[in-house]
Amino acid sequence: MRQRKLGYTDLEFTTVGLGTWAIGGSGWRFAWGPQDDNESVAAIVKAVDLGVNWVDTAAVYGLGHAEVLVGRALKEISPSQRPLVATKCSRVENPDGSIVGNLKRESVIAECEASLQRLGVETIDLYQLHWPDPEADIEEGWQTLIDLKQQGKIRHLGVSNFNVEQMKRLQPLHPIASLQPPYSMIARGVEEEILEFCGENQIGVICYSPMGKGLLTGAFTRERAESLPEDDHRSRDPKFAEPLLGINLLMVERLKPIADRAGQTLPQLAVAWVLRREEVTAAIVGARRPDQIAGVAPGGDWVLSNDEIVEVQAALDERDQALAALGDIDTGRV
């Protein structure tokens, strides 16, 4: 699989990374419903077998459970094949089950120590502030990461879901290795200012949800959306309900012939499309079973032709027109 340099660092990331948001399982605010832990571990191992050389996780995914499963998988993988590990801090659970931000030094240090233990590693390859929340504390959280790097507990520092102004506040303290934003055909808010800033400042971009949380896989239907379990956060996401759902599914139908003519799949098209931007280092592909990552990973090697890019853009333009006709409507956070 192709590799790209992560920002200014010495890390080389494969263009597809394995995402573990969903494998955190049930029991927390942003779950994806119940999962099979053995299948989840097998998916991580399969990703590495396919050539994927990095795994993305976070302390909040399953309230630590996803990191535990990553740690289990690392023990099953030969040291010579050990993938790089990226994780995140700053999202914690309140007693009422709500997820809130905490960038205070004490909290960040405690999260880092807990992640190291769950992952079973001595050093985290890429440690990221998950959200700029509370925004007033981003410098305190960032300085804490700098100190953890000096202690040898993390190799590189990154951020997730930050905007340009927030990144500008951190750069003088320590260069940002990477930004992790949402980016897909249905979430294109980073395309101008944010991607340009990252390109100009040697900040790697590892985008999450390139398949729109499943909407761009071609496997999603109205029936499936209506049957999402209550503990799958997508059941509360406006993109998975009308009128947005119908608009998104219509766009997917427009995209299918593009993938078919290339002998590829829709998930592979979704991944290849975000990778067309030179600022994007890699796409995070979530997988809960080995077959899921096996079916998407080849998208990391697909370089879209100019004609294919133009065709995709036509489908996106139609979607934009349909959205504009709806007026002011909540399209979901990411």
Task: Describe the model.
The two termini are 28 Å apart. The protein has helices at 37-49, 65-76, 105-119, 138-150, 164-170, 193-200, 222-226, 244-261, 266-275, 290-296, 306-326; strands at residues 3-5, 12-14, 16-19, 54-56, 84-89, 91-93, 99-101, 124-129, 154-160, 178-180, 204-207, 280-286. With 334 residues, it is an alpha/beta fold. The protein has one domain (3-217, 276-298): Alpha-Beta Barrel (TIM Barrel), CATH 3.20.20. The strands form three sheets. An eight-stranded parallel β-barrel has the order 3-4-5-8-9-10-11-12, surrounded by six helices. β3 (16-19), α1 (37-49) and β4 (54-56) form a beta-alpha-beta unit.
Summarize the structure.
This is General stress protein 69. 39% of the residues lie in helices and 16% in strands.
Summary tags:
oxidoreductase, 11 helices, EC 1.1.1.-, General stress protein 69, globular, 334 residues, alpha/beta, TIM Barrel, Aldo-Keto_reductase, two-stranded antiparallel ribbon, eight-stranded parallel β-barrel
- CATH architecture, by name, is Alpha-Beta Barrel
* CATH structural class: Alpha Beta
| Share of residues in strands | 15-25%
Strand order of the largest sheet: 3-4-5-8-9-10-11-12
Global morphology? globular
The CATH topology annotation reads as TIM Barrel
Listing every helix as H and every strand as E from the N terminus to the C terminus, the arrangement reads EEEHEHEEEHEHEHEHEHHHEHH
| Rounded mean pLDDT score | 96
N-C termini distance: 28 Å
Per DSSP, the total helix count is: 11
Strand elements, count: 12
Poorly predicted regions: none
Largest sheet: 8 strands, parallel, barrel
Tally of distinct domains? 1
Q: CATH homologous superfamily name?
A: NADP-dependent oxidoreductase domain
Helix content: 25-40%
Q: What is the SS-derived class?
A: alpha/beta
Rg estimate, integer Å = 19 Å
Enzyme class: oxidoreductase
EC number: 1.1.1.-
Protein name: General stress protein 69
GO cellular component, one term: cytoplasm
